[in-house]
Amino acid sequence: MDIFTLARVAAGAPKTTKKDELWWLVGKVLESTMRGEYGLHIVEYPTYRLTGSAPKSLPGRRYVRAAVEALAGSARPLSLEHLTAHYLQRYGQTARVPLYQMFLALHTEGRRLITEAGELRVGLKPNPKLPEVGRDPRAASAGVPDGVEPVHAKMYEENLESLIAERLEEVEPGLSLVQRQYVTPVGRIDLLCKDRKGNLVVVELKRFRASTESIIDQVTRYMGWVQQHLAKRPGTVRACVVVGKVDKKLEYSVRAIPNLRAKCLRVSLSDPD
Predict the structure, then answer these.
(1) Is residue 216 a part of any domain in this protein?
(2) Pairing of strands 200-205, 238-243
(3) Nearest alpha-carbon partner for 147 in 125, 114, 162
(4) Please, which of 111, 211, 239, 267 could form a disulfide with 202 given CB 3.0 to 4.6 Å?
(5) Do 81 and 161 belong together in one domain?
(6) Which residues contact 204 (CB under 8 A, 6 or more apart)?
(7) Contact 164, 205 (CB under 8 A)
């Protein structure tokens, strides 16, 4: 369904929802989608073209300005994903969900300059599979539906991410943090880092219940986007999947993909000396 309908359904809101409230809901739904929560993913991006010729003076707001720049230099319509990527390349990360900010700007300030075709449609990933190992048996006894992440698991992962961010030397000597939770049009990178040579490194934590297939799809998607939009030289982007234990499926997968590796990082509690 389109993003506006999904936002209304998610809040149980009627079609008469006020514009400001509806846009807030759209932002929340898109944030969850970019995080990969609740099995949501983007099914279709709208495309855009200039209504007339490019204006002599560009709009003041960065999102619309970036969109006009990209469309003026293209002979064909461009998707929301493409326009957001152009914005990020031009101005960098300035919002939690740049895709939402671009969508909002095009629907408000950009309406007189830019024409939209299609819809921003969000759906559920088909046939989600739970991993064969690592599933918390307490989830079933607590009445947690399949595919819904328990609160304690999310809290654990957030704390673990913070711990890894503070101990990047254990992931790779010389690694430094660029930004946590780096939002891109294709998802949110746990830790975007740089190595000693200044090359970008994507560090992803293998999530609670996450399958090998899903983490490989996710991390390679991030690598491709960073390579195209942020890297200074081709072939320099690397990635590391941080796990508690490397299973055979993950081991074979990372062997087949250049510049991707897995790292075991065990965290334990001990009494102070």
Answers:
(1) yes
(2) parallel
(3) 125
(4) 239
(5) no
(6) 189, 190, 191, 215, 218, 219, 222, 239, 240, 241, 242
(7) yes
